[in-house]
Structure formats: C-alpha cells, structure tokens
Amino acid sequence: MTSRLAEALRRFRRSPEAAREVSARVSAAEFRAAAEQRLRALEREVAEVKGRVNGLIFVVVGAVITQVVLRLVG
C-alpha cells in the first residue's frame, strides 16, 4: 500500500519537462476526442444551469402574480 502511495505521489510531483513530454505524445485525434468530450460535459452543465434559472424565473413570476391577485381581491 505504501509503495502505491509513493508511486502516486511521484507521478503527481513529476517535473514540468516530463509533463511536456507526455503532452507532446498526444495525437491530434486523441486531443480532438478529449476536447469533444469536455465540450459535451460543458453543454450538459450549461443545460442544467439554464433549467435551474428557468425554474427560478417561473417561481418568482408565480409569486409576483400571486401577490398581485391577493392585493386585488383583499
């Protein structure tokens, strides 16, 4: 277990030169696939936020209409 932890820490702390070396080996197709995957995830998150904002607007408009009706009736 300790050796696995030491190996993980070693990979985490690797030098910037090693990081450049790894990134230089990424093919264009792999990069394109990774970028596409990230964009799809971002689209899902934006859609979720949009849904929440629309729901919030609906609640606020409903509350305003309710207050107007209560003041007109009361």
Please describe the structure with a list of short key phrases separated by commas or semicolons:
74 residues; mainly alpha; 3 helices
Q: How do you describe this structure in short?
A:
This protein has three helices and no strands.
Please give a structural write-up.
This protein is mainly alpha-helical and 74 residues long. The protein has one domain (2-73). It has 3 helices and no strands. It has helices spanning 2-12, 16-24, 28-73. The protein is elongated, with a radius of gyration of 26 Å. The model has no long low-confidence stretch (mean pLDDT 86).
Number of strands: 0
Stretches with pLDDT under 50, minimum 5 residues: none
> Distance between the terminal alpha carbons, to the nearest Å?
72 Å
Number of structural domains: 1
Form type? elongated
Average pLDDT metric: 86
Helix content: over 70%
Number of helical regions: 3
Helix-and-strand structural type:
mainly alpha
Could you state the oligomeric state of the chains shown?
A: single chain
Work out the strand percent. under 5%
N-to-C SSE series?
Answer: HHH
Radius of gyration: 26 Å
Report the sheet with the most strands, covering strand number, pairing sense and barrel closure.
none
Write the layout of secondary structure elements.
Elements: H1 2-12, H2 16-24, H3 28-73
